Amino acid sequence: MRRRAGRGALIVIALLFASSGALRLGDGLGAGLARAAEGALPQDTGAPPPDCPPPPEDLARALKLREDRLAVQEAALADRSAALALADQAIATRLAELEAAEIELRKTLALADGAAEGDLARLTTVYEAMKPKDAAALFDAMEAGFAAGFLGRMRPDAAAAVLAGMTPEKAYAVSAILAGRNAMAPKD
After folding, report:
1. Which residues are within 8 A (CB) of 170 and not within 5 positions of it... i.e. 6 or more apart?
2. How far is CA 96 from the centre of its chain?
3. Is the pLDDT of residue 46 over 90?
């Protein structure tokens, strides 16, 4: 039985709270409806309510100054952005010109290299066609590295005949250069 009495007391307290809330809600709702019926509620005209003071003039001036400063900063940023865009365009144009010049330079170097290679091939053919004794006299007069370059390009039989006709000291120097030319080349 005790349980029922405790439960009933809680229900009574909950009902009292609910009715108190309903009374308060009803009182506020009723007063609001009465004022609306009398026309006491302000209509939404877009204007501030009559009890709201107008904004201070100092605040309005400060906002206007800030707006002016922001406009100046915005104009400066726009000018800077335009200057950067112009600089970017100038850089892109310069890069395109440099790339075109590089392509032309590579073509010119390729032509020069091809011409030089052609000249060396013709001169090597001339030395191979010469009598070994006459070619040996020319190679004795050449610097050893220069002579080794031509002898390395010649057919082995023609190079051997020219080396045989050279002085022993010069033939040795040229042979040492030819042997050591590829000594530093990677083995792998």
Report:
1. 139, 140, 144, 147
2. 17
3. no
Tokens 């229900």: give the residue. Answer: 11
CA–CA distance, 43 with 50 (Å, rounded to integer): 12
For residue 5, pLDDT beyond 90: no
pLDDT band per the 50, 70, 90 thresholds, residue 1: very low
Non-local CB neighbours of 152 within 8 Å, separated by 6+ positions: 159, 178, 181
The dihedral through the CA atoms of 165, 169, 172, 173 has a sign that is negative
Q: CA-to-CA distance for 187 and 96, rounded, in angstroms?
A: 42
Residue 125, phi-psi category: left (phi > 0), alpha (psi -120 to 50), beta (remainder)? alpha
Please report the sign of the dihedral spanned by the C-alpha atoms of residue 149, residue 154, residue 157, residue 161: negative
What are the tens digits of pLDDT across the range 66-124? Answer: 999 999 999 999 999 999 999 999 999 999 999 999 999 999 888 887 887 888 889 88
